[in-house]
Amino acid sequence: MEADSAALQRRGGAATWSGRTEHCSEEATFDGLTLRVPPGVFVPRRSALPIVEAAAEVSTGAFRVLDCGTGSGCILLSLLSRFSEATGVGIDADTKAVAAATYNAAELSLVERCDVQHRTFVDIAQMPKEGLVPFDMAVSNPPYLPAKLMKHVGFAREIQSQSTAAFAAGEDGLRAYEELAMALATPGVLKDAAHVVMGCQPGKAAWAAGPFQELPCYEVLSLHKECAVLRFSRVA
């Protein structure tokens, strides 16, 4: 618990405010992109950059990416900005995030290569039934803190302006990973040999990969400080 508390403080989420002002200006910079981040939408953090870098390392050409919990769209739009032939879909359970990511895609002239949808992680399983083309990659920086930590740590102003659902997921923090592992394994969501890149708390990549490793269709390729990279294979 204390380690989690310290980690949240480093990200500006404890009693000592980190001085972040994105929600005051409703604007943030991520990977060279200027993004609109209205109150209630998760503020892009440098800690999400390793997800982009890891995804970029295993990507080339005209790949199709699914960003789960897109927020402002920072990860999805960063990848589309780096790869001119890539296309993608961003999903979020928060309508404010969907609106923000859609706005940012338009402002960055990327709207023709991406779609932003109001959808939960569990709802990913419905995509094949709706006719969506399978993805070459799935990325996510999901909530990973235990729910009880939200009461243990005094919130800074920046977190008070955001939904706790963007930070916490269940009693142990694994719920989002469990939901994603199951939903992404649904036949027709991912292509065979698709990559899955999951963000995590620093030093907990193996922990984040755990729910995926419980299913035979995932293989861990690499564990980084702040993300895990897996490969999906269809199971006969």
Give your account of this protein's structure:
By secondary structure, the chain is α/β, with parallel strands linked by helices. The protein has a single domain, classed as Rossmann fold (3-Layer(aba) Sandwich). Helix content is 30%, strand content 22%. It is built from nine helices and nine strands. The strands form two sheets. A seven-stranded mixed beta sheet has the order 5-4-3-6-7-9-8, sandwiched between helices. Strands 1-2 form a two-stranded antiparallel sheet. Helix 8 crosses helix 9 (205-213). The longest helix is centred in the middle third of the chain and has 13 residues, at 95-107. It is globular, with a radius of gyration of 17 Å. Residues 1-24 have low confidence and may be disordered. It comes from Symbiodinium natans. This is PrmC protein. One of its GO terms (cellular component) is mitochondrion. GO terms for molecular function: methyltransferase activity; nucleic acid binding. InterPro entries: DNA_methylase_N6_adenine_CS, N5-glutamine_MTase, SAM-dependent_MTases_sf, Small_mtfrase_dom.
- Quaternary state of the chains: single chain
Number of helices: 9
CATH architecture: 3-Layer(aba) Sandwich
Low-confidence stretches: 1-24
Number of domains: 1
Here the CATH topology equals: Rossmann fold
The largest sheet, given as strand count, sense and whether it forms a barrel, is:
7 strands, mixed
Please tell me the overall pLDDT.
Answer: 84
Structural class: alpha/beta
**Broad CATH class:** Alpha Beta
- How many runs of DSSP E, i.e. beta strands? 9
